[in-house]
Amino acid sequence: MLKVEETQSVEFSTELVNKFAEIVSRYPEGKEKSALLPILHEVQAVNGWLSSVAMDKVAAYLNIAPIEVYEVASFYSMYFLRPQGKFVLEVCRTGPCCLVGAEKIIDYIGEKLGVKEGEVTADGLFSYRGVECLAACGFAPVLQIGPEYTFYENLTTNSVDQLISDLKDKASKS
Amino acid sequence: MGRKLLLEHINVPGINTLEVYRKTGGYRAVEKAIKTMSTDEVVEEVKKSGLRGRGGAGFPTGMKWSFLAKPEGVARYLVCNADESEPGTFKDRYLMTNIPHALIEGMIVSSYALGANTSYIYVRGEMMPQIRILEKAIAEAKAAGFLGKNILGSGYDLELYVQPGGGAYICGEETALLESLEGKRGNPRIKPPFPAIAGLYGCPTVVNNVESIAAVVPIINDGGEEYAKIGIGRSTGTKLISASGNINKPGVYEIELGVSVEDFIYSEEYCGGIANGKRLKAVVAGGSSVPILPANLILNLVNGDKRLMSYESLSEGGFTTGTMLGSGGFVVLDEDQCIVRNTWNFSRFYHHESCGQCSPCREGTGWMEKVLHRLENGHGKMSDMDLLVDVSKKIEGNTICPLGDAAAWPVASAIRHFRDEFEWHVRNPTLAVKENFGLAHYADPLPELVS
């Protein structure tokens, strides 16, 4: 597992804080808490996951209690409460995808990466997990990769090979 | 070819842009409604159309609108439910990706009808690309004067925002969606009060599915009576069906309600038949929540008539021999598929997605998942089937929201129609792990099965 100090400090860039302000402006006065889910997505897109330090800062920004952030972050499946690989392959594991071979794809990704579901590869690049229906059943099997949540459809073992190799290239160039 | 109202221009290049969308007749409904119709007249047209909620419940949209409370000086909200998460359903994603302006136009007309000056489209968080598409479409509409202050010089103001969810099936339930939009956990609210009285921020609110809102556009353009001429009986208009599973042509199809199920599965216009030359075993006709039916019962009614793709025909026979149109998530299983495994998979989904508020659902979904898992893995007992039915009955109807029912129905119906396949798993524990039960008599003519 990748080692990350839980207590590392988190700084929100000016750009990010401006984005927060734009999000808050979408709701009536006094209803700023509505911005919580979109703001958590923005923070996760920058940091890769939501540390308690980051969540406390979000709470301070929205002027709500930290527990109000934790309870939301822990309820919704998209928020990561521990560090992930740079690329998180989230493969749909629900009925229609399984009818056309999603389980084999999930097993194959595990073998290929050499880690178990939820673990991070030694180079810090990849983790994967099965997720519930992604509303793409007609293009099954599918996986998505955040923070843009790009979809990869009609997966085969070959297309998974290609995808992982492309992502490695992308990482080595950045 | 059936009439297309929503997807007519889907293949026009650039239809995702305002410019091309307008060239195909887009935003006529906004001009017509805002310039020539009163808000009540718009509501009246939707009532006349007979449009029923396309998210799954099938409640008449015009009636839902007419329940909206209108106290003086209190804001009203329209919230679009784009939290499409019902397994087997992917029509809203398809519509938003390809023709985002159909939804934006519908939102403007509907918000006008309801007197809402701020409206939200709550999109499931995983659909980030669709969120970007909608935000771009909103910016285009705003630049063209269809959104913002004083729309088309009418004095009507509307701001439209896209809200991402966080990945929770339960937020497709309208009160859970409102909780989530308020920045909270997606726990459904106890009703009453209904959202029409106290919804978003405690204000009167209407929550409608993406497809329902998009359907308002042709209803206003052509009139509610014209819309009601399409379809059959109380199933008026067209419906987007998400077809998936073991078929030759999975995808989203717009059908005139009333097409026969047989035509839908086997005709080249739609699914194109079962893939790889296999035979049909079963269908989940309206998203994972609705009862699964074996081939003979989905194709025909007990009286021998063909079953049709309509609210009434699909539910003919109640839950004994029928199912539901639901969200239109049409999942086809061929002869190689294992009903026990499929049922276990769906029950794992509901266990995962239960919000945990009500004990029968929180505990029952996990219990059913465990029992189904042991059946599928060769550790089942003959008493397990009755146990599953018992647990499902104790969830059904005993929870705040319909997720409990949605979790119970697939399990109860699988055992109702495929009990011998479950029993085979108990009798053949080693085979159960690696082989499938096959087709049995599920494709036989009906009279032999229905006793």
TrEMBL record, chain A:
Domain of life of the source: Bacteria
Positions bound to [2Fe-2S] cluster: 92, 97, 133, 137
Co-factor(s): [2Fe-2S] cluster
Family matches, as PROSITE patterns: COMPLEX1_24K (PS01099)
InterPro entries per the UniProt record, alphabetical: NuoE-like, NuoE_dom, NuoE_N, Thioredoxin-like_sf
Gene Ontology terms for molecular function: 2 iron, 2 sulfur cluster binding; metal ion binding; NADH dehydrogenase activity
Any Pfam family: 2Fe-2S_thioredx
Cofactor: how bound: Binds 1 [2Fe-2S] cluster.
Family as reported in the entry's similarity comment: Belongs to the complex I 24 kDa subunit family.
Name assigned to this protein: NAD(P)H-dependent oxidoreductase subunit E
Species this chain originates from: Pedobacter cryophilus
Lineage: Bacteria, Pseudomonadati, Bacteroidota, Sphingobacteriia, Sphingobacteriales
From TrEMBL, chain B:
Taxon lineage: Bacteria, Pseudomonadati, Bacteroidota, Sphingobacteriia, Sphingobacteriales
Organism: Pedobacter cryophilus
Alphabetized Pfam families for the sequence: Complex1_51K (PF01512), NADH_4Fe-4S (PF10589)
Domain NADH-ubiquinone oxidoreductase 51kDa subunit iron-sulphur binding as annotated: residue spans: 340-385
Family: Belongs to the complex I 51 kDa subunit family.
This protein's record includes keyword Magnesium: no
Cofactor: FMN; [4Fe-4S] cluster
Record function comment: NDH-1 shuttles electrons from NADH, via FMN and iron-sulfur (Fe-S) centers, to quinones in the respiratory chain.
Coiled coil (UniProt feature): none
Keyword Iron: yes
EC number(s) reported in the record: 7.1.1.-
Domain of life: Bacteria
Protein name: NADH-quinone oxidoreductase subunit F
Catalytic activity: a quinone + NADH + 5 H(+)(in) = a quinol + NAD(+) + 4 H(+)(out)
GO molecular function terms listed in the Swiss-Prot or TrEMBL record: 4 iron, 4 sulfur cluster binding; FMN binding; metal ion binding; NAD binding; NADH dehydrogenase (ubiquinone) activity; oxidoreductase activity; quinone binding
Uppermost EC category: translocase
SMART domains per the UniProt record, alphabetical: NADH_4Fe-4S
